[in-house]
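[audit] Reproducing an earlier prediction to check determinism. Same input, same settings, fresh worker. If the tokens differ from the archived copy the diff job will pick it up downstream; this log only records the rerun itself.
[audit] input (795 residues):
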Amino acid sequence: MTWLLRGLIGLIAIIVIVLGGGYVWLRGSLPELSGKIAVAGLNGRVEIVRDRHAVPHIYAASVADAAFGLGYAHAQDRLWQMEMSRRVGAGRLSEVVGPPGLGIDRFLRTLSVYHFAESAVAGLDGATRTQLEAYAAGVNSFLETRSGPLPPEFLILGHAPEPWRPADSLVWAKMMAWDLGANWRNELLRSRLATKGKLTARQISELYPPYPGDAPVALPDLAELYRKLPLESLWAALPSGPDRANGSNNWVVSGQRTESGKPLLANDPHLGLSAPSVWYFAHLEAPGLKVIGTTLPGIPAVVLGRNERIAWGFTNTGPDVQDLFIEKLDPQNPGAYLTPNGPRPFQVRREVIKVKDAEPVTLDVRLTRHGPVISDVSEQAAEVASGPFVLAMAWTALSATDTTAQALVRMNGAGNWSEFVAALRHFQVPQQNIVYADVDGNIGYYAPARVPLRSPENDVGGMMPVPGWQAKYDWQGFVPFEELPQAFNPARGHVATANHKIVPPGYRHFLTREWAPPYRARRIEELLAASERHSIDSFQRLQMDDTSLLARDFLPLMRPALAQAKVADQVKAMMASWDGSMAHDRPEPLLFAAWYRELTRLVAADELGELFKDYWGQRPLFMMNVLSGQQHWCDDITTPAAESCTEIVAKAVEQAVAGLAEAWGDDPTAWRWGQAHQAHSAHRPFSKQPVLGDLFDLRLANSGGTYTVNAARYRIANTEAPFDNYHGPSLRAIYDLSQPDRSLYIHTTGQSGNLLSPHYGDFAARWRDGEFIAMTMQRNEIEAGALGTLVLQPK
């Protein structure tokens, strides 16, 4: 019996129970908010006060007990999310969902993420290990003392959680790093374009153009070598993964440019929208610790937030910290591979994957000096790879000495810039652009991480897989911490990052060639410069800005084709006067998005053939180059004629209008961006299942676009819902260092992960509309209107 059939039966059973008067019993899965509970593992009394928004404010006599209280609160509100997170990272999803989880499990076991997380625990300092262990004890105490049923997902799938372990916390941090990087997939796709697509190195370089102002990369022709790899089998076996969709905004302004005379800091990290949100607000107080902000359920620290003296925020730097290495097998010994110093045996680890309602699956994981052999991820790929080559992945997160958790713990307690930077020395993955402000008026920026140093002789530069037996492609160490991008009290009085290129010309180290297009960064700089003095209100407006500079840049190149396009005059007038606002209640954003989508397809689908579906995206740097110079891409190579870009742009708008009319009616003025562009917070794993998805997912019409400051990314390659907003600001926060308790926060759903809770989705509309909640550390304000106080007492 499949997990879905079991789930539907479970759902029907729940409905019957509810209709039969069991609703009160089901509500027993909601957390106890008041009273006293005696628990093992505590050294002293812990109070968990939940304010009117269900945010826990945790008061403890020690930092370890505060971590215990956070673990208890996380488990009360987000137990299923935590269970899914650790099982995905550990490659143990099949134990819950059966065979449908096997592809993900094979890949994550091969990648060895949990293996390295377990090894890393021992290398952390004593304070961090104590915090991890106390947190795990708090989670497990909830599992032992709860009196009601488990949350609905456990009941539907007939599953019960195991005790929490410290490695479970570290593995989810590594999976966050995985979601924030996809360079290796681009390496693999470029290789497939060279082999299956038979494209030249020049064509591939044009499809992946350099960042504006950078020189193009002259790639060597390694197509013949790539043809000996199981690229198609490997690609087909890979679970869906990050698609370089990740972005974020942050900026910090010194007191010289604020109304209060003290710094203001804003942050909105962009991640996949999920139900519940990836974030969970919390406040921790203990001797030596007073911190508030947002946490990741499963991790015992405030990841983004403030304490009494400092505030900080992250965006993803997007460094190239993943390389694919082609390993050549030793002709005399298939259990070894060639290195510059001769053959070396593979390290082999046997994994047994338990599968619900099926037989266990055995997997032999091979490790090389560069990393795991990912071409073993499927039986088909492994069979094809039985020839002379295999493919291994190097990634900085696959380290037994990762101390990033230690950095987070120390950041929470830092009181000034020097202490904050000292904490960042332990931050390894993923590289983040971290902005900083303090109550003394200082602002700063640092981008900490382990970023590999590559040899000057490396002629591929992380763009494609490289021969693993040639020393010139080996990593040469890591960029020294002191030489990473940084600033303290910059002369211009502000720092802003939006995943764009953050290093100046002449910076000595290579970080990446895959910076995000600079549209958001340009708009942020425009709006920061537009006001002489900033306030919380101006920062709120900036975060919600929905003007598309991409549209403003492309429309002058696209509008001339309207003259020969066979579309209604209404359409031409709309595009002639539109200001680029991606507001959800306007028709123009939908028309432009559909027009641009059709144009990308008409430009590249003929050359790329079957591979186009894997390359298809908005690709603005490539598209701008096509319309402004590389017009040979506009010619449809499947026809004898030589089409011009004007013809292709006209054809694109005609097809876009026809498609929109079929979907939304013949009157263009009645179309609305929000009809097609809905923020979709998807539940794991029920989102794609009938009935269950409708119950657990959250949807609402949303403004913005992929390249607006109020980012609302959509996936144009999605043939069913190409404008569905699946990715965006997972959190918005604004920190006022003149009055820190006036700082504002919001995330995408609500504090609870339990569908039965009124706090499952109570933030969603506020988030869409640019509203916030204030989170203070003043206890009298917290207790006004509080939902209750739960006291944990040591047994």
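[audit] rerun output stored. Observation attached for the diff report: The CA atoms of residues 411 and 699 lie 35 Å apart.
[audit] end
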